[in-house]
Amino acid sequence: MNWEQIEGKWDQAKGKIKEQWGKLTDDDIAQINGKRDQLAGRIRERYGYTKERAEDEMKAWENDSRW
């Protein structure tokens, strides 16, 4: 699934994002509001990941998500 599709299904994606990255708060999810770069930044902040690791995890999640 590409990010445009995820943005279009943001209400559904929020729960799946929360399952994948449980350290993200509801406020984090609300502030992200479908923006991929915002999600990457919050993952980096909450998990202490490098930019590359956050991107790798997000790409894997995008490819593995079953909608």
Automatic annotation (TrEMBL):
InterPro entries: CsbD, UPF0337_stress_rsp, YjbJ, YjbJ_sf. It comes from the Bacteria. It holds the Pfam family CsbD. Residues 4-56 form the CsbD-like domain. Belongs to the UPF0337 (CsbD) family. This is CsbD-like domain-containing protein. It comes from Cupriavidus numazuensis.
